[in-house]
Design a protein that fits this description.
Layout (H helix, E strand, L loop, with lengths): L1 H15 L1 H39 L4 E8 L1 H8 L4 E7 L1 E7 L7 E7 L12 E5 L9 E5 H7 L6 E6 L2 E12 L20 E5 L1 H7 L6 E8 L5 H15 L6 E2 L4 H42 L1 H9 L4 H42 L10 H28 L2 H5 L13 H4 L4 H12 L1 H39 L4 E9 L3 H6 L4 E16 L2 E10 L8 E2 L5 E2 L5 E5 H7 L6 E6 L5 E9 L7 E4 H7 L6 E8 L5 H9 L3 E6 H13 L2 H40 L4 H38 L12 H27 L3 H9 L1
């Protein structure tokens, strides 16, 4: 009987307060939906990738080595812990397509042996595997085939080993080794300008003049084997046979590392952004509960006078908050699951998985239900305790009127009319109301800025990396290292205004026990086409005897200016060099030396592996013709194409999930402002009824309400900008990784959108409040207040 009465009161309260309750439910639902969406996407992509790896036998260890006899592969197979080994032939080639002026680089890989171990197998999308007796048949990757409209039966003109050949495509495929595929000089995938071609091992070895030798190892481990122990054993074998790159595991395999970082970012964002939503929701619910309990003082007094004890009254208000959490779960979970499916399909298409397993993350779903319930209970504890501690006799008394003392500045404001005076009095006598409204609106602004800044950061990354740092028109990668004198021949090509050589050298940097594998780049000391920028984004010069490292790499190594770093090139002897500068680099990790100084450190002497070129603005047909005819060029990457590819990659990875968060933040902003205005209006109904009874018209009252709301929103805008920058900084720290350093940059468009959404929410909420003011039953409101 007792519980039944309070439960009926709970249902009535939920109905009467449905407006402000809906706002709180929406904010909580946004938090729940973002968690379920993010972790369902992450879980599904992890499961899809794991199944893909399992079906195709993705290798555990990898190594590139100088041409070696097959007996070396047999020795590797005998190492304890090794399950299977694929001794592969890998090389480079060039593709000439009709209608494409520039050469397209290709990575040539030998096909798995039909009766050999299943390592890095292919997922055929079209056609078949080449027949062993047909040396002109190849399989190409499905992304490149789709980008150029190729398929089984199409012909490819390729240059392999310096000879031009015509090949027939008999199939298209995907490979777990190239979920994220980068061509020479690329920092993001571009299917239009990079191809992967699989060919019979013997045919490819003959074209690359390797005979019966191989130059690439893919190793699968036995269950329970130690990757580090096997790696050390293989390294010893390779060193005894003539060296090669150190054996590395999946963590250093380019494709796996990128996908792993993307999935880890999803998990980090899936915790951080919902936590922000949840914090705002807890604040809003707490403030609303305090106001509700203040409005229901007479009801609390009556309930206690009827015999309900303090604990029962307190539980009643906690149940009110839990009911909102349940409603948020019922709304947010299905939305999160549905959006998770959509986002997973988008990611799966970008990562080029041949199939997709989508499963909602059930632990995340359960966690959302528990966390939303706990958050609602925490938000309601202090207000519920206040209700429980309220004596019945005191609760039945009307609130003590505010002191009618004069307000500073009132005489000056009187010139603006009665509404202005009423606004000033309310602000002075009830500052807590104004502060609660201000903080709620500030969080609404901050949520928008914290999600919108990602788009400004993307623009900043493009401007700094491709605008201020890289000023070339294109980057050329050579098929093999060349002496610097070869640059003079390219400088004579039609349309070339300036050319600067570069040397990209794989190396390991070590400092005080910390190590990282990077590409050490040699640049001309007097170069202008690729500049280094310090942390203030000002150009810095390369010291002749020093090393410049990117800020992120310096943090990983614990390096500071003046520290001596050990550089171990993939080919050549290690050397020590002092850190001369720390530079800003938003994309990837970078280490740089003066080109001439680096050449003197190498056994091979001065060499270049590529060049930056500045071209004339006129027609580039003659330049592209010379480029296509050249046998020394492996790839050509126009700067404009790189920018387009980078933007597309970001649009299809980070921007996907951020766009969903921006939409949730917009919904939350409207909900926060509307709920705040509704609660504030509920507090004022008695006061507004008295003003109406005293003869004040609707317009005067509405102007007063508009003035109070405008004052709170005006305070909230700069405060919200600061909140947004703070939340954005937390997101930047969370997203910072080896591949991308996202700068904290908030442009005027993000501020304008955030402010516009909050102002629109304020206008809509005020319009709804105005309708309620016009419908006030003055006698009924005064009678309710009197009782």
């Amino acid at each position: 009987m007792v519980i039944g009465l309070l439960d009926r009161k709970l249902l009535r309260d939920l109905w009467h307060l449905r407006g402000q309750g809906l706002g709180i439910v929406l904010v909580l639902a946004c938090a729940g939906a973002t968690v379920v969406m993010s972790f369902s996407v992450q879980h599904s992509l992890f499961e899809t990738r794991a199944d893909y790896y399992r079906r195709c036998g993705f290798a555990d260890l990898f190594a590139t080595l100088p041409p070696a006899p097959l007996s070396l592969a047999d020795a590797v197979r005998r190492i304890p812990g090794v399950a299977t080994v694929a001794a592969r032939v890998v090389g480079s080639g060039g593709i000439a397509l009709d209608g494409i002026d520039e050469p397209i680089p290709a990575r040539m890989i030998s096909l798995p042996e039909p009766d050999g171990p299943a390592i890095n197998g292919l997922a055929l999308q079209q056609g078949r595997i080449p027949a062993g007796d047909r040396p002109d048949e190849v399989v190409i990757d499905a992304g490149f085939a789709k980008a150029h409209g190729l398929g089984p039966g199409s012909r490819l003109t390729m240059t392999i080993g310096g000879l031009r050949r015509t090949l027939i495509i008999v199939g298209t495929a995907l490979s777990p080794e190239f979920i994220f595929a980068l061509g020479p000089g690329q920092i993001v995938p571009d299917d239009r300008r990079f191809a992967i071609v699989w060919q019979d091992r013997r045919v490819l070895a003959e074209a690359l003049r390797l005979g019966d030798r191989f130059n690439d190892l893919a190793i699968r481990l036995a269950p329970g084997a130690s990757a580090s122990a096997v790696s050390e054993a293989v390294d010893r074998l390779l060193a005894a046979d003539g060296g090669g790159d150190a054996v590395h595991d999946r963590a250093r395999q380019q494709s796996h590392a990128f996908v792993q970082s993307q999935l880890e970012e999803l998990g980090a964002i899936g915790i951080l952004v919902p936590a922000i939503f949840l914090g705002v929701a807890v604040f809003l619910l707490h403030a609303s509960m305090l106001r509700v309990i203040e409005l229901q003082r007479p009801e609390i007094g009556i309930v206690k006078a009827l015999g309900f004890d303090d604990a029962t009254v307190g539980r009643h208000y906690v149940k009110f908050a839990l009911a909102l959490a349940i409603a948020a779960s019922l709304l947010g979970l299905p939305v999160g699951v549905a959006l998770g499916r959509v986002v997973t399909q988008i990611y799966a298409g970008f990562f080029r998985f041949p199939f997709l397993h989508y499963e909602p993350d059930l632990p995340a779903v359960a966690g959302v239900i528990l966390v939303l319930g706990a958050a609602a209970a925490i938000a309601a504890l202090q207000p519920a305790a206040r209700a429980a501690a309220l004596p019945p006799a005191r609760a039945l008394l009307p609130p003590t009127p505010a002191s009618p003392r004069a307000v500073v500045g009132e005489q000056m404001v009187r010139r603006l009319g009665v509404p202005a005076v009423l606004v000033l009095r309310q602000l002075a006598r009830h500052p807590l109301r104004v502060l609660l409204t201000t903080f709620a609106a500030a969080f609404a602004v901050g949520l928008q800025i914290a999600t919108l800044f990602s788009f400004d950061a993307l623009d900043e990354m493009v401007d700094v990396f491709y605008g201020r740092a890289q000023r070339q028109d294109a980057t050329i990668t050579f098929a093999a290292p060349l002496p610097p004198a070869a640059l003079a021949d390219i400088a004579r090509w039609p349309g070339v205004r300036r050319i600067e050589g570069r040397l990209d050298l794989p190396a390991r940097l070590t400092l005080r026990g910390a190590a990282r594998d990077v590409v050490l780049t040699g640049l001309p000391a007097d170069g202008t086409l690729q500049r280094l920028l310090d942390t203030a984004l000002e150009p810095v010069s390369l010291a002749e005897g020093g090393l410049a490292v990117s800020r992120r790499l310096a943090e990983i190594l614990g390096a500071r200016t003046g520290d001596s770093v050990t550089v171990s090139p993939a080919t050549g002897r290690p050397f020590d060099i002092a850190v001369a500068a720390i530079v800003e680099q938003y994309i990837g990790l970078g280490a740089y030396m003066d080109l001439a100084a680096l050449g003197r450190r190498l056994d091979s002497g001065p060499i270049v592996t590529g060049a930056e070129v500045k071209l004339a603005d006129k027609d580039r047909t003659d330049f592209l013709r010379a480029l296509k005819a050249s046998s020394v060029v492996a790839s050509y990457m126009p700067r404009t194409a790189t920018i387009v590819a980078f933007r597309e990659t970001m649009a299809r990875t980070l921007t996907i999930i951020v766009s969903a968060f921006v939409a949730f933040a917009a919904v939350a902003a409207f909900a926060i402002v509307d709920a705040t205005v509704r609660v504030a209006l509920s507090e004022r109904l008695r006061e507004l009824a008295i003003l109406r009874a005293l003869g004040f018209g609707e317009s005067t009252i509405l102007l007063m309400l508009a003035g109070e709301l405008a004052f709170a929103v005006a305070l909230a805008l700069p405060l919200g900008a600061a909140v947004g920058i703070g939340l954005g900084q937390v997101i930047v720290w969370t997203l910072d990784n080896d591949l991308f350093h996202v700068p904290l940059v908030v442009g005027w468009r993000s501020y304008a959108i955030a402010i516009g959404i909050v102002l629109a929410a304020a206008v809509v909420s005020f319009a709804l409040a105005a309708r309620r003011v016009r419908k006030i039953d003055v006698p009924a409101a005064l009678r309710a207040a009197a009782t």
